[in-house]
Amino acid sequence: MSQASPVGLEPEDPVHQAMVQLERNNPVRPTKTLGPFGRGVVVMGQSPTPSVTHRKETITAPHLRRLSRLFSPRQSRLFASPRDARQRRDHPNRHSGSLIQLERIGLEFVHYHDKQLSFKTTALDLILRRPSRHHATRFEALKEINLTVRQGERVGIVGPNGAGKSTLLRLIAGIYPPTVGRRLVRGSVVPLIEMGAGFHPELTGVENIQLNGAMLGMSPSQVRERIDSILDFAELRDFADQPIKYYSLGMQARLAFTVATELDPDILLIDEALAPGDASFATRAKIRLKQLYIRSHIVMIVSHDMNTLMETCTRGIWIDHGRIVADGPIAQVVNDYLSNRRGDTVVLP
Question: InterPro entries attached here (predicted)?
Answer without folding.
Answer: AAA+_ATPase, ABC_transporter-like_ATP-bd, ABC_transpr_TagH-like, Bact_Polysacc_Export_ATP-bd, P-loop_NTPase
